[in-house]
């Protein structure tokens, strides 16, 4: 039996936060503060019951095979389900041979950084982008160079220039064209085509970090992925269930042409350990097969839309002239541009009991900026946080 999620405000009774404590989870909000920092879902939105049922069904169906070393690339039922979904959503021929299971996008970046690059080579990244992903690549001994971005994402002329200057020393280019972290930007179709053209001219691989791909909150649809526009050639697309089912699952996949997935399937890490996350991939495959995944996603998008709208409306009503903000079409984040310097914004927010993420964490920004997330708090807390921020940033508290 599948859970009926549609009318619930929480993903189910097991989605409680009784053990949401330091020592168990990676980070906890400071006592009494509203935390707008996290790039992950609040406890009530994490579908613990759904996942529990999926694991129970998997144990029954797959028996001992569920506890074996999994096929190196990832178990076929999962890769098949993901490939079918990709082909249907992206209108792109995609088979299980194009999919390789990872332990999340971070692991995908690490595989790329250790296999398709040599220490000392360069990786080009967005001037403003996902900082923790950069940390993974730096830890692979790679030198990061940033490429200018504008309101449409990575600037093709700047990419061209950086590739020319690097004269063949670039291992690959990493970018997030859809529901960007931290800016929320969706790159236009035209820009995608231009970026692909530049990369093809230089013969350089693009890594499309597509963590938020499923989180289109208005149903307007983002342009096709870079992987789909390129017919999968020259692009590795990294996907993850972290932002829709939960980061604790540590499940993701790489979508690429067969030459690349073959190469990774022979990676020592997978030869030794088998699939990066075997049991979990089988459990998630059952959800993909019986539509439990899509039902959850529909439910989640409604909750995230309510939260996004609550935060955006509160900011535009209470902070006009103090910050500039654009309504993102999807993902988790609002990107606030301000005139006050960043340290002052952060200190005042903290004193008022609100945690925000420093814009400078994500690279260079034109003007002071902070990232606020609507994924980790219900609408009422988001509104209360903005009232506190307004008092702090307008200087009345
Ligand atoms: C753009 C981007 N890529 C990757 C990740 C991490 O994904 P995973 O949990 O699958 O390692 C995040 C999480 O914040 C992200 O924002």
Task: Compile the SSE list and pairings.
Layout: E1 34-35, H1 48-62, H2 76-90, E2 99-102, H3 105-115, E3 122-126, H4 131-139, E4 143-147, E5 149-150, E6 153-154, H5 156-166, E7 170-175, H6 189-202, E8 205-209, H7 226-229, E9 235-240, E10 252-255, H8 258-265, H9 268-273, H10 278-289, H11 292-318, E11 323-324, E12 333-338, H12 342-351, E13 354-355, E14 357-358, E15 369-373, H13 379-393
Parallel strand pairs: 1-13, 3-4, 3-7, 7-8, 8-9
Antiparallel strand pairs: 2-10, 5-6, 9-10, 11-12, 12-15, 14-15
Pyridoxal-5'-phosphate binds next to helix 3.
Polypeptide structure, described:
By secondary structure, the protein is an alpha/beta fold. The chain has two domains: 34-47 and 293-393, Aspartate Aminotransferase, domain 1 (Alpha-Beta Complex); 69-290, Type I PLP-dependent aspartate aminotransferase-like (Major domain) (Aspartate Aminotransferase, domain 2, 3-Layer(aba) Sandwich). It contains 13 helices and 15 strands. The strands form four sheets. Strands 2-10-9-8-7-3-4 form a seven-stranded mixed beta sheet, sandwiched between helices. Helix 2 (76-90) crosses helix 10. The protein is globular, with a radius of gyration of 21 Å. The mean pLDDT is 96. The structure holds pyridoxal-5'-phosphate. Pyridoxal-5'-phosphate binds next to helix 3.
């Amino acid at each position: 039996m599948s859970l009926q999620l549609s009318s619930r405000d929480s993903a189910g009774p097991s989605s409680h936060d009784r053990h949401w404590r330091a020592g168990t989870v990676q980070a906890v909000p400071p006592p009494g503060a509203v935390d707008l920092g996290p790039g992950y879902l609040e406890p009530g939105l994490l579908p613990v019951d759904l996942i529990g049922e999926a694991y129970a069904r998997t144990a029954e169906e797959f028996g001992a095979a569920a506890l074996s070393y999994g096929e190196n690339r990832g178990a076929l039922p999962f890769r098949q389900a993901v490939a079918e979904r990709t082909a249907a959503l992206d209108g792109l021929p995609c088979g299980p041979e194009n999919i390789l299971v990872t332990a999340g996008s971070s692991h995908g970046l690490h595989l790329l950084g250790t296999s398709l690059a040599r220490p000392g080579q360069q990786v080009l990244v967005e001037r403003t982008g996902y900082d923790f992903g950069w940390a993974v690549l730096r830890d692979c001994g790679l030198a990061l160079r940033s490429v200018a971005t504008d309101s449409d994402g990575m600037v093709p002329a700047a990419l061209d220039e950086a590739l020319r200057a690097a004269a063949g020393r670039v291992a690959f280019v990493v970018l997030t064209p859809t529901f960007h972290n931290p800016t929320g930007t969706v790159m236009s179709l035209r820009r995608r085509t231009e970026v692909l053209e530049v990369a093809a001219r230089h013969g350089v691989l693009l890594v499309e970090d597509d963590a938020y791909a499923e989180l289109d909150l208005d149903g307007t649809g983002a342009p096709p992925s870079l992987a789909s526009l390129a017919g999968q050639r020259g692009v590795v697309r990294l996907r993850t269930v972290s932002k829709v089912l939960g980061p604790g699952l540590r499940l993701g996949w790489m979508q690429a042409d067969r030459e690349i997935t073959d190469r990774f399937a022979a990676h020592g890490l997978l030869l030794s350990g088998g699939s990066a996350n075997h049991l979990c991939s089988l459990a998630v495959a059952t959800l993909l097969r019986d539509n439990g995944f899509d039902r959850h996603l529909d439910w989640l998008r409604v909750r995230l839309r309510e939260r996004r709208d609550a935060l955006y409306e509160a900011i535009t009503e209470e902070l006009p002239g103090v910050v500039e903000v654009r309504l993102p079409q999807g993902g988790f984040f609002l990107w606030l541009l301000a005139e006050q310097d960043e340290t002052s914004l952060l200190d005042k927010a903290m004193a008022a009991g609100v945690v925000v993420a420093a814009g400078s964490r994500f690279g260079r920004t034109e003007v002071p900026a902070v990232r606020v997330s609507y994924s980790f708090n219900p609408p009422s807390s988001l509104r209360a946080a903005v009232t506190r921020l307004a008092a702090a940033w307008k200087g009345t508290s």
